[in-house]
Amino acid sequence: MSSLDAPTRSTPATPGSVHPGAGRRVLPTLNEDGTRRWIRPKPSHGAWWRRRRVVAYALMAIFFAAPHLRLFGKPIFLMDLPRRQFTLMGYTFLPTDTLLFMLVLASGVIGIFLVTALAGRAWCGWACPQTVYLEFLFRPIGRWFDGGYAQSRNLDKKGAWFTPRRIAKYVTFFLMSLFVSHTMLAFFVGTDQLYTWMVHSPAAHPAAFAFVVAFTGIVWFNFTYFREQTCLIVCPYGRWQSALIDRQSTIVAYDYTRGEPRAHAAGAKGAPRDPNAGDCIDCSACVQTCPTGIDIRNGLQMECVHCTQCIDACDEIMTRVGKPTGLIRYASQDAIAGAPRKLLSLRTVLYPLVLFVLLGGLATALLQKAPADFTVLRGIGAPFTQEADGRVANQVRVKLTNRRSQGTAYTITLDSLIGGDLRAEDVTVAIPENPFAVPAGATRTTSLFILLPSRAFVGGEKWMTLTVTDTEGWHETVRWRLLGPATATGATPGETK
Ligand code: SF4
Ligand code: SF4
Fold first, then answer.
1. Global pTM?
2. Best label site of 112, 146, 367, 468, fewest CB within 10 Å?
3. CA dist 362 to 99, 358, 368, 401, 405, Å?
């Protein structure tokens, strides 16, 4: 029997169902009368929880430190929205790098698909900020204010939402949310800008102030009130999982072949346990510890975030009753059903192949990327103008994007203008800004003006080369076509050759 197809048994109401008018639950967090069923998961501090705690604290440290870390003189992560630039691991993606940026995003998405195909929702249980902050920061601190797990449920029963301890908890959550939102803002504006804003009046930066207020409110609401609803209602990932995993994917699974038929440790009135019963003693410890309120014994469910808490809870029970641990464990659906392990499947072959192609394309594009983007454009308006003395004027625009981490000056030189019957004194070139300075990561455009006698144009065109060279020796040359009057000889009537 597939765990996906496992028969659904109604889960006994747990003490978390506290609303006076609440009847039987219809969804993990919804009572029959439409009220919310509050989830107060019982802590299970087993081996998996200890491993997740190490990962969670490491991720929190990285999150809080990342805005301050630099690589090649640049932030390791900066999503500079006002300047439409994205810096990742020392490389800055500019607005002209849409293709590169798409390759990064596509690689990330395929990477998540691959991890899901191999290890189910490992991301949700181990690394998602929602899980990390809720289970290892906000929930433990909340329990401390509530006086422990049991007391937090009693407070629910009394409807005592606004006791002094709880108000202190909400205020603490607000301060934590403020810290998280400031850290988030640093990822968008950088630490220097953030510090400047922090020491000045909000009136000097109303938009940023409004963002911090709004984001702090959202973080506070999420971790104080909304909690598991974010995973169940807002996040689409859980809904994708049925399309992303197969029966060979490793998931958090209940071994129904070993656990069923379930039966209490002792029968009614102390009668001995049914000798044909499975190992599950129907203690509901796995349900009480589940942060999304589901019963893992009902099979793979959209609500399961693979947090492993039910593994720890059940292992503790199995140890107590003298049975082997692992009734709930990391396993594939096929492994639970006793089917042979297949090393390869369509997903585990296709996803790595696609990922390899994407990352290969990204690496190639990055290695070939020049330290500047150089574009030549025609002047705005008429393609050329003719002076009173018959000479032809072309305006040429040079657009430069400086990818270096420091400001750079570019020198513009023209070639192939003189030759044939064109002498140096026939040619006038005006480049108002030469060298042309461009700040780090910025894009600037400058214009240059070229005046030639009309006889320089054959068939209405004259080719030249335009070279830009930066202070570090990088240079690039393009051929460019100047436009002029299209006379057969190139000579304007009345003009002397
Ligand atoms: S069923 Fe188990 S792994 Fe899934 S969310 Fe609940 S406690 Fe976590
Ligand atoms: S914790 Fe284990 S023994 Fe208890 S109900 Fe869950 S699966 Fe059964």
1. 0.76
2. 367
3. 9, 6, 10, 20, 21
Q: How confident is the model at residue 177 (pLDDT cuts 50, 70, 90)?
A: very high
pLDDT digit string (tens) for 32-52? 888 888 888 999 999 999 999
For residue 333, what pLDDT is reported?
93
4 pLDDT tier (thresholds 50, 70, 90): very low
- For 113-167, the pLDDT digits (tens) are 999 999 999 999 999 999 999 999 999 999 999 888 888 777 666 556 677 888 8
Instruction: Please tell me the predicted confidence (pLDDT) of residue 267.
Output: 58
Best mutation site among 251, 308, 310, 329 for ligand 1, i.e. most ligand atoms within 8 A of its Cβ?
A: 310
Longest CA span, the chain: 122
* Beta-ladder partners of 355: none
Minimum CA distance residue for ligand 1 atom 7: 290
What is the Cα–Cα distance from 404 to 471, expressed in whole angstroms?
11
Burial 10-27 (b: 16+ CB within 10 A, else e): ebeebebbbeeebeebee
Q: Atom 2 of ligand 2 has which residue's CA nearest to it? A: 314
- Report whether pLDDT(235) > 70: yes
Helix (H, G, I), strand (E, B) or coil at 429: strand
Q: Is 372-483 assigned to CATH 3.10.20.70?
A: no
pLDDT computed for residue 270 by the predictor: 67
Question: Does residue 103's CB lie within 6 angstroms of at least one atom of ligand 2?
Answer: no
In 3-state terms, the chain is what percent helix, strand and coil (to 5)? 45, 20, 35
Assess whether pLDDT exceeds 60 at residue 180: yes
Domain boundaries, the chain: 1-68+120-338, 372-483
Q: Pick the closest to residue 481 from 462, 454, 497 (CA basis).
A: 462
Q: How far apart are CA 263 and CA 273, in angstroms?
A: 7
Instruction: From 264, 284, 298, 319, give the residue whose CB has the most ligand 2 atoms within 8 Å, as the site to mutate.
Output: 284
Report helix, strand or coil for 69: coil
Strands 392-402 and 443-452: antiparallel
Residue 16 scores a pLDDT above 50: no
Ligand 2 atom 3, closest CA:
280
What is the spatial distance between Cα 274 and Cα 111, in angstroms, rounded to a whole number?
47
Measured CA to CA in angstroms, residue 28 lies from 18, 35, 160, 296, 308 at distances of 14, 12, 23, 12, 17
Q: Measured from the CB, is residue 277 less than 6 Å from ligand 2?
A: no
